[in-house]
Design brief:
Length: 405
Amino acid sequence: MCRPFVNWSGSLTFTPSGYAEPADEDEVRELVQRARESGTTLRPVGSGHSSSPLVRTDGTLASLHRMAGVIDMAGDRATVRGGSRLKELGEGLYDAGLAMENLGDVDYQSIAGAIATGTHGTGVGFGNLSTQVAEVRLVSGTGEVVDVSATSNSELLPAARLSLGVLGVVTQLTLELQPRYDLRRRAWCAPVEWTLDHLAEMQHTNRNMDFYWYPRSDLTQIRTMNRADDTAEVSPGAANRMPRSDGWYEPRELEVGPTHRTIPQNRELRFEEIEYMLPAEAFPACFAEVRRRILDRHRRTVGWRVLVRSIAADDIWLSNAYGRPTTTIACLQNASLPYEEYFRDMEAVFRQYGGRPHWGKKHWLTAGDLRPLFPRWDDFQAARRRLDPDGVFLTPDLARLLEEA
């Protein structure tokens, strides 16, 4: 009997019929062939940070933690194994004088898992992590090793860069990188009205900018990051024009360091999260309604904050930022508190404004809801059926996401 799998937040628990820790590509191929021949499913799993049931299976769960590390570096590219954790990967790249262009808020994830679910950071000039992927190597549902790049199976690249793990087990990724440099992190608090009035300015005059809104106090915490060698360390106007009165604080420097240590933040407390990606132009009206509902209906029970970030548009078929500059709204709730009523109410608002759900977080959409939101949905499905014709990677949860009844 296999041990139960429990995800990071504790909300997803299941017991697979088998558990494997392949050490190389050949062992992955054997697992795929075995699942295909027996008519069972195989799901790859990284760190288990996702709170959506993408990895849930009554078949075999395959952890890639033994398939980690940098394989090769050439110029501004590095080929890495799919099970590499972002934290260790960041250290290895830094030692080689390189860095990923942008990162998300946590470094607990594996690189393949982060790419597969559309993990993102913040910054109007930066896409999600999948946009940094130049090449993908995977073991398909037929047990074939498939290389996808601009010169090999290029028609599959927009699908393979963000695939939910349904095209195959990603064993290697080649990343586009930058020379390493340090970032300066700063933060300050301000009333929400001031933050919204100056949001566009702060987004466009800082390398990275986001803010938390705290429903209990109705204040925000603004966070910016800029290169330490950049003289425009914060928005040149907004932060310096703030009145100094109750609830308003001077920008304070929190830390200076390399990107992989400065961007991700330590997360000791576990939480649940729903996050939707909105067309940037729809954000003001959507956030106003989110704020109104939380203050009117949920303020007493909401123990955590609301996070607002930005993502550049891209051309990846299942990317939540496909074809449009994007602003995200994430509602967080302590893992020990009820979340479903609150999150479902927020989801109703997000959907009114054309939002697309984050693949790795809580949502209740199925294929019929999702298909109109992604212009290249049918192209992705064709790629999935080509690479996994027998549904080796298609669990009941994923079928609800990807296949209309």
